[in-house]
Specification:
173 residues, alpha+beta, Aminopeptidase, seven-stranded mixed β-sheet, 5 helices, 7 strands, 33% strand, globular, GNAT family N-acetyltransferase, GNAT_dom, N-acetyltransferase
Length: 173
C-alpha cells in the first residue's frame, strides 16, 4: 500500500480544516477545534520544542488524504499520549489506509517520546474507527457516555517498555 507520512505544514492545516467541515465527518469524529484560526494557533504550538502534540499528514498514492497526530503527550507522569486519525477523503474509507498509517505512526511516537501507551477515543457508532484501532493493536478499555454520546476508549502499549494490555473491560460512566 502506497502510504507515506509527511511533515505537516500550514497549508495542510488549512486544507484539513476545509475538508473536515463535512457534515458526515463532523458527526463521526469528536473535533474540539472550533475555527481555522484556532487550528493554525495549535499548529504553531506543535512546532515548539516543548510541544505536547505531534502530527503527520497521510499521503496515499501521492495524494494528501488525512492527518494523524498525538496530543496531550505526557513523558513525566502518565507516560502516555492520545491519538487522533482522520481520513477526510471519504471514498477511501474502509481501505485500510488509516490502519496502516496508525501502525507506522504509533511506532514512530513510541520511538520519539518517552511514553508507555497511546490512548484513543471514538464514538461507539464509528465502526470504521473501532475496526482500525483493533487492527492496529489497540485494546478497548472503557465505554462511557459523555454529552449524551456513547464513546469507547482504546489503548496500545509500547511492548518494548511494558507488557501488553490483557484486561478488556467495559465501564459505563
Amino acid at each position: 500500500m502506497d502510504i507515506i507520512l509527511k511533515t505537516r505544514t500550514k497549508d495542510h492545516v488549512m486544507i484539513f480544516w476545509e475538508r473536515t467541515q463535512d457534515e458526515e465527518i463532523r458527526r463521526l469524529f469528536p473535533f474540539s477545534i472550533e475555527s481555522l484560526e484556532e487550528a493554525l494557533i495549535l499548529f504553531e504550538e506543535s512546532l515548539k520544542e516543548d510541544a505536547l502534540s505531534y502530527g503527520k499528514v497521510i499521503y496515499f498514492e501521492g495524494r494528501y488524504v488525512g492527518d494523524i497526530w498525538c496530543y496531550g503527550i505526557d513523558e513525566s507522569n502518565e507516560k502516555m499520549s492520545m491519538l487522533s486519525v482522520v481520513i477526510f477523503e471519504k471514498d477511501l474509507w474502509g481501505k485500510g489506509i488509516a490502519t496502516e498509517a496508525t501502525k507506522v505512526f504509533a511506532k514512530e511516537v513510541f520511538n520519539k517520546f518517552d511514553i508507555e501507551k497511546i490512548g484513543a477515543f471514538t464514538y461507539s457508532n464509528n465502526y470504521g474507527s473501532i475496526s482500525l484501532l483493533e487492527k492496529a493493536g489497540f485494546i478497548k478499555v472503557d465505554t462511557f457516555v459523555e454529552n449524551g454520546i456513547e464513546s469507547e476508549y482504546f489503548e496500545i502499549r509500547n511492548n518494548n517498555k511494558v507488557g501488553s494490555i490483557r484486561n478488556n473491560h467495559t465501564v459505563a460512566r
